[in-house]
Each structure stands twice: as structure tokens, then as C-alpha cells.
Amino acid sequence: MKTTTKFVYALTGLFMSGLVLSCSDNEDVQPVDASAETMVGPVDEHGSDHDGSCSYVDNAWASSANLYTSLPNSGSTSGADLLVSQNVAIKTFWRGSSVAAPLFRFVRDLSNPRSTFNAMSYSSGKIYYGEEIYKWAKNRDGSNLINVMILAHEYGHQLQYAYGLPSRQENTARAGELEADGMAGYYLRRGYGKSSFAAIATAYEAASAIGDYDTNSGGHHGTPAQRKSAVRLGFLFADPQNAKLTATSFDSNFFYYYNGVLNGTYRMAQPSSVTPEFHAFMLTHMEELGKIANGEMSDEEYRNL
Ligand SMILES: [Zn+2]
């Protein structure tokens, strides 16, 4: 993510915020990460992990960034506690109550705020969420649906770490990123209760602006059209007439219909992993998914699906 805008923050805010913020303590020190997945683009993740330090996050973030368990509940950071509770709710939706939720922390950097325009999911069971991406999403959607969508995407990476997904391997991050988008669409309908696609589509149009066309980059997340198609596919899987999917069954279904996400062509034979009813339901949406993936569907049509 390239940034050209410089932000200037009053340093006094750093000290005043101490009343309502707390640096994370050392209770949850994790092993060194093998990898991390992001929402918005490639980040090299190597070296030491210093979760728990107030002076250093890790080398995926600026050296001046810090970890916090909350953000001020006012102005453009109001409502951020929703993500803390959703971090647990999304986990419970997919994995039940007996599995621990990821360690969730906000990353804040008042001297270099644009450096926190990112959210990262770590293989050691952590999600770090940048203050700037929170504010960006909150400003575009006061209901915070974009932020919940981003968090659900990051939790999709936690599912991938836990279950060895995605089952499809490509030369770039695309398969895993598009699957995480699909998992987010699935959660928003089935777990977060957004029964209408319109609200999700509006939110996702904002988020999909982050999609890239750098298809040869290792961090390629899929084109915006592919990301929109992926979230729509997840939304369709979540139709109430379909049985609830586990992470692994979501994966097998997602990659069965994946060519439609990529280029609008769909295999038509019924996969052995799904019921005839499920496949018949999906077939009724093939043309629509193809139009999304091919970029032939207008934003207005997409919102009104
Ligand atoms: Zn991602």
C-alpha cells in the first residue's frame, strides 16, 4: 500500500491517551512466527517476535509502533471494542467455545500513523489490527461492517493456519486471500446476521479498492473483481437453506467453484463433497458469479444482487 499523505499528530495525544489505553502486558508471549497474512498487501515477516513489548511490535510494523488492548472510545476510533468482542464471536462461530480466540491487539503509532494501515494474522495465533485501517473503515461505514469484514478475513487466515488450508497452492498468496474473503462473506451472513447482500456489497466495494492487479507479486491478493466474486460466493454458501460448513468443507466447496471466481467459468458436474440440493442451488448463481469475476457487473447491479 503506497502512501503519499503525511499526517501530523500532536504529541500531547500520546500522553493523554495513556488514561484510556493500555499497552499489552507479557502474559501472552508467543513463539516466533513462521508467517503472517495481511489484508492489504505483501509484508515480509521474518525475525523476532516481541509481542508484549511496549517499545517494539515486530519487524512487520514500524519501530515506533506499540500494541494496545483498546483504542479511545471517541471520534474516529469510537466503537473499536466491537472488534475485541468480534474476535471471540468469529472464532466461536467457526470453531466453537472450547477453542481459544486469537490474541487480539491494536497497533498504534502516533509518530507515523500511516504505518498502521494494515491488519495482520499470525501463524502463532495472533491478530494485530492497525489503528489507521480501523479509522479508514470506520469513516466509510459508521456501523463498522467494513472493520468486521476485515477482521473476519484475518480470522480466515487463522482457520487456514489451524487446518492446513488453503488446499489449493499457487505461486502467489491469491488462493488463500480469496478464500479468506469468501470466509468473511460467509461469516457476515451466517454469523453476523447480514441477510441482505446489499449492505455487505457496499462495504466490500470499499474494501475491494484495496485489491491489487500485481498478479505476479508474491503477495497478490486477487483483483478487485475476483475479491468481489469470492465474497459473493461465500455469501451464497451461507444461504440458510444450506447446511453450515466447517472450515475444511468451506475450503473444498470454495475451490470446487474457484474457477468461477477467477475467470467466470464454472465446473458443472456435482462434486462428491456436496449434496445435489447444494449444487443445484449453486448452479442457479453461476451466470451471476461469472459476470462479477469478469468485471461485467456494475457496482449498482452488485449492490442489488
Ligand atoms: Zn489476507
UniProtKB/TrEMBL annotation:
Q: Give the signal peptide as a residue range, or say none if absent.
A: 1-22
- Can you name one GO molecular function term for this protein? metallopeptidase activity
Keywords attached to this entry:
Hydrolase, Metalloprotease, Protease, Signal
Q: What is this protein called?
A: Metalloprotease
